[in-house]
Design a protein that fits this description.
By secondary structure, the protein is of the alpha+beta class. The protein has 8 helices and 8 strands; from the N terminus they run αβαβαββααββββααα.
Length: 230
């Protein structure tokens, strides 16, 4: 694959995929070597490290290289909830604080499949596998776009909850912090003491507070299905 600087969207479209929900795992502790907040401008918008850069071989390679800290025009998202939870767990295992998982509505935006890009650029083995179920977004998510659906803060372990849609019920693993503070309003002595909680209403409230979408809207239903991986 010979992607060169300045190539057109016609070639880039080879790696474009349709994604409705993306999960961004961020570290908001500025003292951490894993710090990767896209909210650096503190205006509520998600901004890449360098949105002025174009899409070319160098910027793509730099972004896919975990050891490179150069600016990037991309924001990475996981397209599967469990992958986001795995990465969150890995970060917490490294002692990282201020971890947040951000659910974003990506439908209609230019999103590239990181795995396909990495493969075409010659990545193999673990270097390739780390980009499985990852998508790259090349734009700013502005606060007034109402695409930021929900945020799951904290470094507690995940816990099993019940979720439902009008036509079905299912289970999912979500951060205990969300259960503590968004559902219970407190931290119980033991999470096992409270039984299986239905987190649907709390997630719906989070979506409503961020987007204004009420009831069983398209974004809420897609988010619940993505978290439950159904």
């Amino acid at each position: 694959m010979s992607l060169q600087s300045g190539q057109t969207d016609q070639l880039i479209s080879k790696w474009m995929v349709n994604v409705n929900i993306g999960f961004r795992v961020e570290v908001h502790d500025e003292t951490s070597p894993f710090y990767n907040s896209t909210f650096r401008l503190r205006n509520g918008s998600m901004v890449p490290r360098d949105p002025t850069l174009g899409l070319n071989r160098t910027t793509i390679l730099n972004h896919l290289d975990w050891n490179c800290r150069d600016g990037s025009p991309f924001i990475s998202f996981f397209t599967i909830w469990s992958r986001a939870m795995e990465w969150r767990k890995w970060l917490i295992g490294k002692g990282v604080q201020k971890v947040v998982v951000i659910a974003v509505w990506l439908d209609g935006l230019k999103v590239l499949d990181a795995y396909s890009l990495a493969f075409d650029l010659g990545f193999r083995g673990d270097m390739l596998h780390r980009h499985l179920h990852e998508s790259l977004l090349c734009c700013v998510i502005s606060e007034d776009s109402y695409r930021i659906l929900a945020m799951f803060h904290g470094t507690c372990q995940t816990t099993r909850v019940s979720l439902h849609l009008p036509w079905t019920h299912f289970h999912a693993m979500i951060p205990e912090d969300f259960v503590y503070y968004s559902i219970l309003g407190r931290r119980p002595q033991k999470i096992d003491d409270i039984g299986l909680i239905d987190a649907t209403e709390a997630i719906a409230n989070e979506v409503y507070n961020n987007t204004g979408e009420r009831d069983w809207g398209t974004m809420l239903c897609a988010l619940l299905k993505s978290i439950g991986e159904i």
